[in-house]
Specification:
The chain is mainly beta. It has one helix at 87-91, and strands spanning 4-5, 13-23, 29-30, 34-48, 51-55, 59-63, 68-70, 75-84. The chain has one domain (4-92): Sandwich (Jelly Rolls).
């Protein structure tokens, strides 16, 4: 089975904004970072570790480093994606606890 690995991001932290973006990632992606996906609008399906979830508006997905993610069919999403590595917690203020 073909598998791709998430690319490195600067400072182990990234926020991306999607506006009606087409996502067609048929090949599973092994996450190198933790991912929070906040959808404002969506249509389609996301698969995380083989479990399928419907994409709808106002939905939050949490995926951990090492999980497999893919979009098994074309979909359209609007929202935000936040990616961060384990070192993010080392840089966060102590008040996070």
């Amino acid at each position: 089975m073909e598998l791709i690995f998430e690319k490195d991001i600067q400072d182990s932290f990234r926020i991306r904004h999607f506006v009606r973006n087409e996502r067609i990632d048929h090949v599973p992606e092994r996450l190198a970072y933790h991912r929070i996906l906040l959808l404002q609008e969506g249509a389609g399906v996301i698969e995380i570790d083989g479990v399928r979830f419907e994409l709808t508006g106002k939905t939050l997905f949490l995926a951990s480093k090492g999980q497999l993610c893919r979009f098994p069919e074309p979909c359209t999403v609007s929202g935000y994606e936040l990616n961060f590595g384990d070192c993010f917690w080392q840089k966060a203020p102590r008040q996070r606890e």
